[in-house]
Amino acid sequence: MSQLSQTNDLKNRIIFTIFILSIYRLGTFVPLPGIDPEQLQIMMEGNQKGLLGMFNVFAGGAVSRMAIFALGIMPYISSSIIVQLLTGVSEYFKNLKAQGEAGRQKITQITRYGTVLLAIIQGYGLSVGLESSANLVINPGIFFKVSTITTIVAGTIFLMWLGEQITQRGIGNGISLIIFSGIVAEIPRALVTTFELGRTGAISTLMIIGIFIILVLTILFIVFMERALRKILINYPKRQMGNKMYGGDSSHLPLKINSAGVIPAIFASALLLLPVTFSNFNVSQNETFLNITSFFSQGQPLYMLLYASGIIFFTFFYTSITFNPNETAENLRKYGGFIPGIRPGESTALYIDTILTRLTTMGALYLTLVCLMPEFLIANYPIPFYLGGTSILIVVVVAIDTVTQVQTRLMSSQYEQLIKKTKFGR
After folding, report:
1. What is the C-alpha to C-alpha distance for residues 96 and 312, in angstroms, rounded to an integer?
2. Which of 47, 83, 307, 321 has its CA 20 to 30 A from that of 251?
3. pTM (predicted TM-score)
4. Nearest-CA neighbor of 108 among 118, 119, 117, 97?
5. Which domain holds residue 70?
6. Phi, psi of 67 (to 5 degrees)
7. What pLDDT is attached to residue 2?
8. CA 407 to chain centre
9. What is the C-alpha separation between 282 and 293, in angstroms, rounded?
10. Phi then psi for 32, rounded to 5 degrees?
């Protein structure tokens, strides 16, 4: 606490982040107009599993309350997926990325426009789905559709803005922290539900103990894998300038096993949610929707296959667009650095790419294992969705990243104070 008190900027950032997240949590309790709360509760009790339950996790419980933030931040994530995929295949987006800060701002603007478009489409689908559910909407009609779409789109845009404010003026990544806060806020209720199931005999006490042992081991495994690094030794030759000798130092190029972080799990979940986000509203009336959603419930082979494939694909894809071995090799050559036993230039790039590919393969398998293993438990036992692998992964990884940013700012503050003391000492 003494270190925090010495850093006013850090304290202000933390307070600002908590304030923004409090606004978000408040919004998840503001319901859409024209919804019968009793009928909504009945409908949600029968749709806790499957994609609707997963969507409710990412929306921080807003779906179960049909709040103004019911779409959560998922339209923004879906838009980001589309834009990042285009960055890898479209020359226009590649050129924007190469333009530096100006190009990044243009890409951000396009992502925002995509978010609004997706929110309008999903808002319309939500309004139609709500009206098709018996007795759920008090006064169905065009006015309900317009008000629902307007409210949902406004809520999504406001949530996107809140996330950007956290990233710019707070601590951590705003979008990730919004998802993180939604999951964490619902975990106490999930624990109470689990204990209640044990009390009523739905699951045995031994099974509850086993679940929490697996939970703790999973958290420890995630922390270990997220902290794991492969350090590549970099040497710098000695150079003589005038009468002085410079260089001759060694450093390391750190490569994480999971360079993509939690992004692949979120993106894969978003893709599974996008096509049939609101099909659960129609299962009682439409046999086609019933057949579709039955394949996307926990434990189903198609769900597992698509989820695992999405995680693996986005792990490799996101790593490829965030780390370029050729640029790294060129920077090393430019500053005189080299890897012992490897020739500078193309050979160095190939060497780094080979190591990165092996690490990314391990990272993709690790993410797939963590995300899918608890899903089998959820499929076979009445365990709340908030204790699933994806939820645990998001909470742990976002917490690690946020703590790392806090520590980095504290260290920067300490260095600044040390430099000031040195100057005054002189």
Report:
1. 26
2. 321
3. 0.77
4. 97
5. 2-425
6. -90, 175
7. 47
8. 21
9. 10
10. -65, 145
Three-state DSSP string of 258-269: CCCCCHHHHHHH
State the sign of the Cα–Cα–Cα–Cα dihedral 217, 223, 226, 229.
negative
Q: Tell me how far CA of residue 349 lies from CA of 259, 333, 338, in angstroms.
A: 17, 10, 11
Q: How far is CA 56 from CA 6, 50, 65, 124, 244, in A?
A: 40, 10, 9, 18, 64
Number of independent structural domains in the chain? 1
Q: Distance of CA 383 to CAs 53, 78, 205, 219, 372, Å?
A: 12, 28, 13, 17, 14
Contact 31, 66 (CB under 8 A): yes
Q: What is the CATH number of the domain that holds 154?
A: 1.10.3370.10
404 and 256 Cβ atoms separated by less than 8 Å: no
Encoding tokens for residue 261?
């972080």
DSSP 255: E
> 3-state class of 83 per DSSP?
helix
Q: Quote the pLDDT of residue 276.
A: 54
**Exposed, middle or buried by CB within 10 Å (0-12, 13-18, 19+), for 122?**
buried
Grouped pLDDT means (10 residues each) for the chain, 426 residues: 60 89 89 79 61 64 79 84 79 79 85 90 81 76 87 91 90 86 81 77 78 85 88 77 62 85 80 58 51 61 83 88 83 81 85 91 91 70 62 85 82 66 55
Structure-token match 């420890």, residue found: 220
Rounded Cα–Cα distance for residues 276 and 303 (Å): 13
Element at 29 (helix H, strand E): none
Gap between the Cα atoms of 166 and 184, Å rounded? 17
CA separation for the pair 175, 222 (Å, rounded): 21
The DSSP call for residue 32 is: P
Q: Return d(Cα 293, Cα 277) in angstroms, integer.
A: 10
Sign of CA dihedral 69, 72, 78, 81: positive
- What pLDDT score does 58 carry? 67
Tokens of 204: 């045995």
Residue with tokens 């997926």: 81
